[in-house]
Design a protein that fits this description.
Blueprint: E1 4-8, H1 13-24, E2 28-35, H2 47-62, E3 65-70, H3 72-88, H4 95-115, E4 120-122, E5 128-129, E6 149-150, H5 160-163, E7 174-175, H6 183-192, H7 196-199, H8 215-220, E8 228-232, E9 238-242, E10 263-269, E11 274-279, E12 287-293, E13 297-298, H9 301-310, E14 312-318, E15 326-333, E16 336-346, E17 353-357, E18 361-373, H10 374-392
Parallel strand pairs: 1-2, 1-4, 2-3, 4-7, 8-11
Antiparallel strand pairs: 5-6, 6-18, 8-9, 10-11, 12-16, 12-18, 13-18, 14-15, 14-17, 15-16, 17-18
Length: about 400
């Protein structure tokens, strides 16, 4: 039976309410605060200190012991250094997915289970576990069921996208106490149990280590600016200058003056330090239906086996957690992985993550290598059609 649970306490309302719900079930709960970043923000403050104070206050109110672990060095190596390397190569990384994979569900998970000797880990993520949000079915001696990462009740707050890169074995011992709750209910409960201070606390959004700073100003502190050309992707004509490919991402408006239509980033070429831009928000160079990806991290063994058996899998896709899911076919082509979307999407970005779903669960994820522009796919289709017609004649 699972009796002893470590809960990651962040200083926010979600993890505090998760700790409360665990206590309500009679579990022995230990709170652990992870220190992942210790740089000062633009006002000379370390936001982590404020979060720690809130975590300590909440745990005192709940009667939960709180300890700290320091992963600053590991975070810098596994997450932040990768973040900088990707931007210098013209990619757009997702540090939240990397943090969950390398820190929260690897180092922290192992610390809780192996070093501290606890039975399970709980988090304040909005997600569900097929073994039960409190692992109710995990303790049965005849249970051999593999845990699945299910979509939560509050689909607006759904955080499965950010959990799609974690090791699937971690799910066997992970609780998601908020999986069946709406965010509004979480805040109401927090107020009811005396945690109104957290219920009204402003939620952190965006990249945690950037804080409230302008991203371009932040990234300039770590990557030197290097001027290059904005080049019209249709004409090959230089239409402006930029100060570094790391300051731009695919789909972003360039704000170049004196042109009839606004320009948007279509492609970045790190070797030549060139940014190719397309005129018009929905230019075919910004739209894609075919995506090339790295080998997926599978959270669902059945889906992995099905793909390997028939080299094709129908599922749902997204590459941004706020965007609607779209149908796709995941294929293995010449020992590489390819996603074919049923409908084109805009600004699919190398370095971001393709995340796959069925109707109920997150199946896994893979880093995007590149996305073929719709214009290129159309040209290829016309070429194949013409070639077929030539062969017929």
């Amino acid at each position: 039976m699972i009796r002893n649970v470590v809960v990651g306490v962040s200083g926010g309302v979600d993890s505090a309410v998760a700790a409360h719900l665990l206590r309500e079930r009679g579990l022995n709960v230990l709170g652990v605060f992870m220190r992942n970043w210790d740089e000062l923000d633009e006002a000379g403050r370390c936001s982590g200190e404020e979060d720690l104070k809130d975590a300590e206050w909440a745990c005192r109110r709940l009667g939960v012991e709180l300890r700290q672990v320091n992963y600053v060095r590991e975070y810098w190596t596994a997450v932040f250094s990768q973040f900088l390397d990707d931007y210098q190569q013209g990619l757009t990384p997702n540090p939240d997915i990397l943090c969950n994979r390398h820190i929260k569900f690897d180092l922290f998970h192992k610390h809780a289970l192996e070093h501290l000797g606890y039975d399970a880990v709980a988090t304040g993520h909005y997600a569900r576990n097929s073994l039960g949000n409190f692992l109710e079915r995990a303790g049965a001696p005849d249970t051999t069921e593999a845990a699945r990462l299910l979509i939560p009740a509050d689909t607006f707050k759904d955080q499965t996208f950010f959990l799609a890169g974690i090791p699937r074995e971690a799910l066997q011992r992970t609780m998601f106490p908020l999986g069946d709750m709406a965010k509004s209910h979480v805040k109401e409960l927090a107020t009811k149990i005396g945690l109104q201070r957290l219920a009204t606390k402003k939620e952190s959004t965006g990249i945690c280590f950037v804080g409230k700073r302008n991203f371009k100003e932040f990234i300039r502190e770590y990557i030197s600016s290097r001027s290059g050309d904005f080049v019209d992707i249709d004409s090959g004509v230089t239409v402006g200058q930029h100060k570094g490919i790391h300051q731009w991402t695919v789909g972003q408006r360039c704000r170049l003056s004196s042109f009839l239509q606004p320009y948007f980033v279509a492609k970045k070429e790190a070797a030549s330090n060139t940014i190719y831009v397309a005129a018009g928000h929905d230019h075919p160079a910004l739209l894609s239906t075919r995506i090339h990806i790295d080998p997926p991290n599978w959270l669902c063994a059945d889906s992995e086996a099905r793909l390997l058996a028939i080299v094709s899998l129908r599922c749902r896709f997204r590459f941004q957690h706020t965007k609607p899911l779209v149908m796709c076919t995941l294929r293995i082509v010449d020992n590489t992985f390819e996603v074919q979307l049923d409908a084109p999407l805009r600004a699919i970005t190398p370095g971001q993550y393709a995340v796959f779903y069925d109707e109920l669960a997150c199946l896994g994820s893979a880093r995007i290598i590149n996305a073929e522009p719709l214009s290129q796919s159309l040209e290829a289709g016309e070429h194949k059609k013409a070639k077929a017609e030539t062969l017929k004649s």
